[in-house]
Write a structure and sequence with these properties.
The complex is a heterotrimer.
Chain A: H1 2-22, H2 29-55, H3 62-80, H4 84-106, H5 111-131, H6 133-136, E1 142-143, E2 157-159, E3 162-164, H7 166-190, H8 192-202, H9 204-209, H10 214-240, E4 242-243, H11 250-263, H12 268-288, H13 294-309, H14 313-326
Helix pairs in contact in A: 2-7, 2-8, 2-10, 2-11, 2-12, 3-4, 3-5, 3-10, 4-10, 8-10, 11-12, 11-14, 12-13, 12-14
Chain B: H1 2-25, E1 40-47, H2 57-72, E2 80-87, H3 92-105, E3 110-112, H4 117-129, E4 134-135, H5 143-146, H6 161-175, E5 180-186, H7 189-201, E6 208-215, H8 223-231, E7 236-240, H9 243-255, E8 262-265, H10 272-278, E9 291-294, H11 308-320, H12 329-348, H13 354-361, E10 365-366, E11 378-379, E12 390-397, E13 400-409
Parallel strand pairs in B: 1-2, 1-3, 3-4, 5-6, 5-7, 7-8, 8-9
Antiparallel strand pairs in B: 9-12, 10-11, 12-13
Helix pairs in contact in B: 2-11, 2-12, 3-4, 6-7, 8-9, 9-10, 12-13
Chain C: H1 2-32, H2 39-56, H3 61-88, H4 92-114, E1 129-132, E2 135-138, H5 139-161, H6 163-173, H7 175-180, H8 185-211, H9 217-232, H10 237-257, H11 266-280
Antiparallel strand pairs in C: 1-2
Helix pairs in contact in C: 1-5, 1-6, 1-8, 1-9, 1-10, 2-3, 2-4, 2-8, 2-9, 3-4, 3-8, 5-6, 6-8, 9-10, 9-11
Classes of the chains: A mainly alpha, B alpha/beta, C mainly alpha.
């Protein structure tokens, strides 16, 4: 019985991995690219999941962390001639360090104040990027299309004996990173760290009095969460083949928050649902109406409606289904 | 174990459904090129329908209305045009994704009149690699016309921002010999190009730019910048801004009691509705006598009241874009571009191919676009992908623009 | 010297607009404990309402003004009752999400109804300028500062000197205990939202004549208003004013005289203020420290 329960999530994960592997043969190359973006948002959402779901800190600034990752990749590729895949772990480390550093002063903020502070960072990120023009290319941004370090952008690449065009290559790259990233997060959260995180979330004072070092775990959570956002940003730059300050606007941070809310916290199903939602919402809302402003209205309505209907997100729904089927 | 699987399954099913749906929807009807059948042409446009630049959505709206009108008259050699407009919220990353969708999923024939400088830059390499025409980019950035050799599939439309600045600069050099200019400009390629053009135009004269203040699009107001410009002691004020900030510039200059001898503004900063608001019922002295650039027919200019083209414009707007504000000149811009696209496609003929279209627009020579000012023609060549390079100067008198002088032309990048 | 003073005056003018919206943020936070991300958009909507009445329906200024305030009041209260209240029991994140949802909804709706075109809005004050010692001061700006100060006084009186204000404060700080002593907590919260909406409307109508009306009227101002509120103390009306004016003048002078800041870093400058204040003295200049009880 116990073994079954432990094997269940693993089995589900394996099924998912197989589906991911096999799917491109059934869908068009373009759809594969859209699904690649789903993987990117999935990675991006793991961050807030860890931060908010496990230590209760609300961040509205993950778009800024994505920008750090994205620009790291772009600059490393164009100025230092580094191959795109190798920039990803560097982006993770760099953004993680930035997040960790931010986590230090963030210790003094809580709840709404932290939300406000991270909101402030996300809003100012584009302007700051623009200011350091010599470094970041300013408003014109950095173009990655056709750059030799960008795999498969002009000619197909050969991987494990198969020839992949850009869209399919992107798909496999992003989903591999997403699945690996998910496993890493899962391992991290299962262990002592995860326990400490949850203790912090449930009651800071209680956690402190049981010997959990608040500063250590809260900043660690920020660092980890930022690292994931950085990886997502890096993949985003590779996929979009272009970065500039306007590609990481405050709307992105808000969209990530929406994804967290829709997906709910703490489950793979939720992450996937949230990522799918983020990727396809702009497309769906345009089906509803093409008038200027309509897509924004739809997004707002959905957010509000979700708080009424599914306050715990899809994960919450899944959780409720779980308790129902237990009977 | 089975319960956990049943949870993961909905997510997987969702993904599969999305995937399968697309696989089925992918069927295209192939002729010579994607997007063209014997009865239809599919064009794609990205436009800021939402977000901070939604005022520019009127461009796409005007173009779309004109295409619908053309369809009602039989289309282009019997083919009806469908113009798919996708919102990119003025975010280049969205422009990239939307463009890829238009090319790879919707399989459009060409990308038409995509709006935004960085937005067009972001998709330029991709479109040229895919050999999809990037037709009449709605941006005046110099790069769209000047890199013709590298990007054969990309054509601009309006006069480059640099050429606008240059013309204004040359005008100053010729008529205001020793002017001292203070410039307010938007801190992006648009504003910087205009400023660079102005400086080039005044190069061999005694006119000097004594102060130049940038502002960010995210600014709440530009009062501080205008105050700083006033303090520079300049006697000429140049406004290279976007609508809201152009109005603010005029109004703050007046409020600060600044009385520059002459105010200059580029085309976007000086559309009639902007000037009407800025003039504050005629009390704003800074507005009077302003000089600006124009290449389109202004719907609020009484001179075109009985003009055949503007009558058509109003009729088309009423019928195919009800509810839109017809005095908004951006609609005219879109219509002018749409007209040119239709003429170009007609010229290619029955065998409509992308290569054919690129050849035609790369060698344009049209002087009859009814929405452009009389005498302004569309001309491109292998090394010059700026169709419009001529403009007129106009002066704001009482409550409308009055063009003066002859046509100005700009040659060279 | 005149140039310096001109920048100071310009800073006071901008700052008073930040302060007016900051007052709304302070009110909502003090009365309901919530940071309302949609405050700016609600103000924009109110301003469009006033514009429609005066321009499309030919109303004269003051009747339109009064009606706009009334509609804003009831609108704000309705938003609380309908949208916010059901989510108050949930986590903090839920309320934040709802206000962000409102932000998106209202911003989109405004664009759909009125389009992105820029509009002119009448000012209640004459737009003449007086010149004192080489410095141009617009009567409108003086009027704006006057209104903002007056509103601040009224707000202060409300909270410190009236029973209703006391009840509102009690409802925000400790709803359970407030109920025990007979305070109708829900009414007080709705009242808070309604009044904040009124303040937002006033802010929009003060700003629009100078800054001009488009759907993003309040978007930029909101950030500066947050900075002002945080700087002055998010529970203090006086702080909102001091914060707003200080911010306006400070940013202007920084932008004019420090080249590195220039125009580009004005906004991040404001945000840096938010960050620094939150870290050094989260309660702001005039706020009181929050003590957490175990």
């Amino acid at each position: 019985m116990r073994l079954g329960r432990q094997l269940a999530p693993v089995a589900a994960f394996v099924v998912l991995a197989v589906v991911v592997l096999v799917l491109p043969s059934f869908v068009s190359a373009f759809r594969a690219q859209q699904l690649a973006y789903v993987a990117i948002y999935l990675v991006a959402l793991i961050g807030p999941n860890v931060l908010t779901g496990y230590t209760g800190q609300i961040s509205l600034g993950h778009g800024a962390f994505m920008a750090v990752g994205g620009y790291t990749t772009a600059i490393l590729m164009t100025d230092y001639g580094m191959k795109d895949v190798w920039t990803i772990p560097i982006a993770a480390l760099l953004t993680g360090a930035v997040g960790f550093l931010f986590g230090l002063p963030a210790l003094r903020l809580s709840g709404l104040y932290l939300a406000l502070a991270t909101f402030a960072i996300a809003v100012s990120a584009p302007a700051v990027i623009k200011r350091f023009e010599g470094f970041t290319g300013g408003g014109s941004g950095i173009n990655l299309f056709g750059v030799p370090e960008l795999t498969a952008s002009l000619t197909p690449v050969e991987v494990l004996g198969r020839e992949l065009v850009f869209n399919d290559w992107l798909y496999y790259l992003t989903w591999t990173v997403a699945l690996v990233g998910y496993v890493l997060a899962w391992l991290l959260l299962r262990g002592r760290t995860g326990l400490a995180f949850r203790a912090v979330r449930d009651s800071e004072t209680a956690a402190q009095s049981s010997g959990v070092s608040l500063p250590r775990y809260k900043t660690l959570a920020f660092g980890v969460s930022a690292a994931y956002a950085g990886v997502a940003g890096s993949l985003f730059a590779i996929a979009t083949t272009f970065v500039n300050p306007d590609t990481f606007p405050i709307a992105l941070s808000i969209l990530l928050l929406v994804g967290v809310v829709v997906g709910g916290l703490g489950s793979l199903v939720g992450l996937i649902a949230g990522a799918v939602f983020i990727q396809f919402l702009p497309i769906w809302s345009q089906e509803v109406s093409r008038s200027p402003g309509a897509p924004t209205v739809v997004s707002g309505l959905i957010l509000i409606a979700l708080m009424f209907v599914l306050p715990m997100g899809v994960a919450g729904l899944a959780g409720r289904l779980r308790t129902l089927t237990k009977r | 174990m089975i319960r956990k699987l049943t949870l993961a399954l909905p997510a997987l099913v969702l993904v599969l459904v999305l995937g399968a749906g697309a696989a089925l929807a992918g069927s295209s009807r192939t002729e010579a090129d994607p997007g063209v059948t014997s009865t239809s042409i599919l064009l794609g446009t990205t436009s800021p329908l939402s977000g901070s630049a939604s005022a520019y959505a009127s461009v796409a709206r005007g173009a779309d209305a004109y295409f619908k009108y053309v369809n009602s008259k039989g289309g282009v050699l019997g083919r009806k045009i469908t113009n798919t407009i996708v919102d990119d919220a003025y975010n280049p990353a969205q422009t990239v994704q939307a463009t890829r969708k238009l090319v790879e999923q919707d399989k459009v024939f060409a990308i038409f009149n995509a709006l935004g400088t960085e937005h067009n830059e972001a998709i330029r390499d991709y479109l040229n690699a895919q050999k999809v025409p990037q037709l009449f980019s709605a941006s005046g950035a110099t790069t769209f016309g000047s890199e013709a050799a590298k990007y054969p599939y990309t054509i601009g439309f309006q006069p480059s921002y640099q050429s606008e600045g240059w013309v204004l600069g040359k005008y100053l050099a010729r008529t205001q010999g020793t002017a001292k200019v203070a410039v307010i400009f938007q801190n992006d390629d648009y504003g910087k190009d205009l400023l660079a053009g102005l400086k080039k135009g005044i190069q061999r004269s005694k006119v000097k730019v004594v102060a130049a203040e940038p502002y960010e699009v995210t600014a709440a107001d530009v009062q501080a910048q205008v105050a700083k410009l006033k303090a520079s002691g300049a006697n000429t004020f140049a406004i290279f801004a976007t609508p809201k900030f152009a109005i603010q510039s005029y109004v703050f200059a007046s409020r600060l009691n600044w009385k520059p001898k002459l105010t200059l503004a580029n085309a976007v900063s000086s559309a009639s509705n902007i000037m009407q608001i800025a003039s504050e019922g005629g009390t704003n002295k800074v507005v009077n006598g302003s000089v600006s650039i124009v290449f389109l027919k202004d719907p609020t200019d009484p001179k075109w009241q009985n003009d055949a083209a503007m009558k058509l414009y109003r009729q088309v707007m009423k019928q195919y874009a009800p509810g839109a504000n017809a005095s908004d000149v951006y609609h005219v811009y879109g219509m002018a571009a749409a007209w040119t696209a239709v003429e170009a496609m007609k010229k290619v003929g029955k065998n409509l191919t992308r290569a054919g279209l690129v050849k035609v627009v790369g060698n344009l020579s049209i002087s009859t676009n009814p929405f452009l000012l009389p005498g302004i023609g569309l001309k491109t060549s292998q090394s010059d992908h700026f169709p419009i390079e001529q403009m007129l100067l106009q002066r704001w008198q009482k409550s409308s623009w009055k063009s003066f002088g002859g046509l100005w032309g700009y040659r060279g990048a | 010297m005149a140039d310096f003073m001109q920048q100071v005056v310009a800073g006071l003018a901008s700052g008073s607009i930040y302060a007016s919206l900051a007052l709304a943020l302070v009110l909502i936070h003090r009365a309901t404990g919530v940071i309302n991300f949609a405050q700016g958009e609600m103000a924009t909507l109110s301003t469009y309402l006033a514009w429609t009445l005066t321009t499309n329906h030919g109303w004269s200024y003051w009747p339109a003004f009064v009606v706009t305030l009334l509609v804003s009041f009831f609108g704000g209260a309705a938003v609380h009752q309908g949208v916010v209240r059901p989510n108050e029991k949930g986590s903090l994140l839920r309320v934040v999400i709802v206000t962000i949802g409102l932000l998106l909804l209202i911003n989109g709706a405004v664009t759909m109804i009125w389009s992105g075109e820029v509009r002119a809005v009448q000012s209640p004050f004459p737009t003449r300028t007086v010149e004192i010692g080489g410095v141009a001061i617009s009567i409108q700006d003086i009027g704006t500062i006057g209104v903002v100060l007056g509103t601040m006084v009224l707000l202060w009186l409300l909270f410190q000197r009236t029973k209703v204000g006391l009840a509102m404060r009690a409802a925000a700080v400790n709803p359970a205990e407030a109920r025990l002593v007979g305070v109708r907590v829900t009414w007080m919260l709705s009242l808070g939202w309604g009044l904040a909406a009124v303040l937002g409307a006033i802010s929009g109508m003060l700003a629009a004549p100078s800054v001009f009306l488009d759907p993003n009227l309040m978007a930029a101002i909101l950030i500066y208003a947050f900075a002002a509120a945080v700087l002055g103390g998010i529970d203090s009306p006086v702080g909102a004013i001091v914060g707003g004016l200080t911010l306006g003048v400070g940013l202007n002078l920084l932008g004019t005289y420090v080249d590195f800041v220039g125009a580009d870093l004005r906004l991040p400058g404001a945000l840096l203020v938010i960050l620094v204040v939150l870290l050094v003295k989260p309660s702001g200049i005039f706020g009181k420290r929050e003590v957490k009880r175990v």
